[in-house]
Amino acid sequence: xxxxxxxxxxxxxxxxxxxxxxxxxxxxxxxxxxxxxxxxxxxxxxxxxxxxxxxxxxxxxxxxxxxxxxxxxxxxxxxxxxxxxxxxxxxxxxxx
Length: 96
Fold this sequence. Notes:
Blueprint: H1 18-24, E1 31-37, E2 40-45, E3 55-62, E4 68-70, E5 75-77, H2 80-94
């Protein structure tokens, strides 16, 4: 198995997302997940003013000065949080 292509996931605390949150204009606690690949940062987050269970996604990239900026407009995913919860519940049921 080639582990170079296996994604690495880890839990982080909200302060670790300060730079991402600043680029999005949201509190750090609104950032749900971040992954990077080839200079792009895929971010799943809760936009300011949206209900907690309404998640959005966008891509960030660094500008010439190294500052993270939004590369595309956010996309709202109305049932993403529900799909995540159901997936976690199924995995927990499998191990019960």
